[in-house]
Amino acid sequence: MKKQFLLVAFSVVAWACSNESDPAADKANFTRIYDNNKFEASYFPIDMIQTPDGGYLILGGRRLVDSNFSGIYLMKVDEFGAFISEKEDKTNFLLLSYDNDKKEMVVSVVNPTGIVTSSKGFGIGEGDAVEAPIIDHFIRNGRQFPFQVGKALSGQYFFNGFYNYTFSLVFTDLSSSSPQGVVQGQQDEGGLSQVVPLTGDKYATARFNFGDNYILPGATLKSSGVSSSVDLGGNSFPELTANAPVKILLTTVNAKEIILYGSNTHSRQIALYGYNKSSGEFLGSKYLGFSNPYEIASMITTADGGLALCGTTYVAGRFPRICLFKLSKEELGKSFK
């Protein structure tokens, strides 16, 4: 039976309480862990946005007892991090999925009513061995790959996923079954961790290669022809976990445009690294997490100029739960000068 597995959504998305103190301070800086009374429940965040009312909408998943696949979990919290309600999105969005019948990565443009307005598939290569890491990723029974889908400043679409036996960044106009450009990785052992367009063909990115992690705040990526991610070089970060997930955010701190990287460390904290957007100069670092292990899922700029970051923590070192960090613009200013 033909099945399509949703891997990632680009753009788009239930319980804590706030302490009684100074409301302004409580909104500017907080940490929340969202627990519940289901002892064996397992939740994991995928992405988040801040809503117009100052709160946050979090898209997550949950383990199902009767299936290897994951269920959908949506959480809306207020400006203090307390649970409110579900919220609908109202714009077109991009989806990256996998068609296990055709053995294709599929990029789709979907409107708010759920209708696919355009779509194109790209072959991953023949054989079950090529498909195995994708299925293991989807059922969260193996390594989690940095799948991504987005739109370049040139108007091209791109996806970070498997193509022609290799984890690659693929550029397409969604009209041809052949890519316009491919930045190849090293089969499933190397590739790009995330990409964010800056100007022209310049991107803020990071890459992984056989466990090592490299940060590149100003890399030139070829959107036509075939190139290799290994040739991009970059600065190695040994403190990060093997093939670490990396999130990249363009934001403003101390009236300067910066590139903010978030990732996971061997000490089970979340590391933040800041770089000047124009020069690529390193501006500083900050570490989040205490007591329990923490892992990053998503981070966004908030309406007050601060930062919100959601992730996973493990209560008692065992039970995965969603957590939310909020940092004020003043706190960010101290760390990234």
Describe the structure.
- With 337 residues, this protein is mainly beta.
- Helix content is 7%, strand content 50%.
- The chain has a five-stranded mixed beta sheet with strand order 9-10-11-12-16, with no helix packed on it.
- β23 (307-315) and β24 form a beta hairpin.
- The chain is globular and about 60 Å long.
- It starts with a strand and ends with a helix.
List the helices and strands and how they pair.
Blueprint: E1 4-10, H1 23-28, E2 30-34, E3 43-50, E4 56-63, E5 70-77, E6 93-99, E7 104-110, E8 116-123, H2 128-138, E9 148-151, E10 157-163, E11 166-172, E12 181-184, E13 190-199, E14 202-209, E15 212-220, E16 225-228, E17 235-236, E18 246-253, E19 256-264, E20 270-276, E21 282-288, E22 294-301, E23 307-315, E24 319-327, H3 329-335
Parallel strand pairs: 12-16
Antiparallel strand pairs: 1-6, 2-24, 3-4, 4-5, 6-7, 7-8, 9-10, 10-11, 11-12, 13-14, 14-15, 15-17, 18-19, 19-20, 20-21, 22-23, 23-24
